[in-house]
Amino acid sequence: MNVLNTNPFKISLILLSVIFITVSCSSEDDSSDGSPTNNNIEVSIDEYPSTGELITTITSNLSGNLTFNITSQSISQAVDINGSSGELRVLAWQVYDFETNPVITVTIDVSNGTEIENKVIIISINNTDDISSFLGNSRTAYINASNGEWILITQSEYNDLANYLSNVSKSGQSDNTFQSTSGINTGGANFTVSNNNAPTIPEGSYLFAFRYYCNQNNIVDTNVKVSETSYQNNFETIGSNLPEHNAGFNYFVLKGNNAQTSTTAYLGIYESNSIGYKNFNGTSYFYESGDAEDLTNDSTNRSYLYQGLSTTLKQWD
Fold it and tell me: Which residues pair with 212 in a beta bridge?
């Protein structure tokens, strides 16, 4: 070939083609050598798992001895990771709440000392009945109960519901009164009572638990009352009668309450037998004989020992 007679334009095209092929081959080789890649990993877990429960085990495309490190998480202290094995586990179990944190996102760096692979873990929280999650011995009775039925539970279960469900308020009587060293007295049977100026149920709330003190055994006809008018008038029964219970402090949970208060509400109780109270100067209450809606009588210096738990965030079916 006579190079001097060759078209310069053709020579330029040939040289560009050679360069393009060389570069293309180089890129393909680079992408097949186990280089780091970005990955999203989606997993799910039920609400309120146990601390230490395994969520997933992180794997990597990198070779060699790997280390795993959490670089960010959308909810502080939600997860912990084993730096050598890549096991991702529950840390703060309380934050696994569908109603407040339906998704938790965690970013993890995997490194072999020279390369880093980024992982994004998307943890979806499965919606469950939050009340059931905090019941132990009483869970079976709760699951088998019908909506609107009160179930006898333990003190520790009541306390867990008060402490761990979201947006919980206490009404009817304060914890300070229950915990005071004043002696417990018991009143007469068969009347409806409401503590005046007691903590109220906030607007837009669902009543879901109740506790009170009584001094008789085999009580079957007592029920919980709520008024959206005042401490004195228009009380209505919430749910079934309380299940049979005995003397002392008793604790209950209400299955499937869908009745949300439309305004500030007031808690009362109809007790078919005696109910406990403590004497405190300056306190007052309303009462009426029998299972009543309106309490026409009032008196002073007694604080009756009953309390309700309610929440503005429905956390059950």
Answer: 250, 306
- The partner residues of 223 in beta bridges, in order of sequence, read 270
Instruction: Decide: 42 and 122 in contact? Cβ < 8 Å.
Output: yes
Q: How far is Cα 67 from Cα 84, in angstroms, rounded to an integer?
A: 5
What's the chain's Rg over C-alpha atoms?
32
Pairing of strands 39-46, 116-126: parallel
- Predicted TM-score (pTM) of the model is 0.82
Neighbours of 108 (CB within 10 A): 23
Residue 167 CB coordination number (10 Å): 16
C-alpha distances in Å from residue 264, one per residue of 75, 177, 249? 33, 22, 27
Over the chain (317 residues), the average pLDDT of each successive run of 10 is 40 36 33 53 96 96 96 97 98 95 97 96 96 96 98 98 97 97 91 97 98 95 98 98 97 97 98 94 96 97 97 94
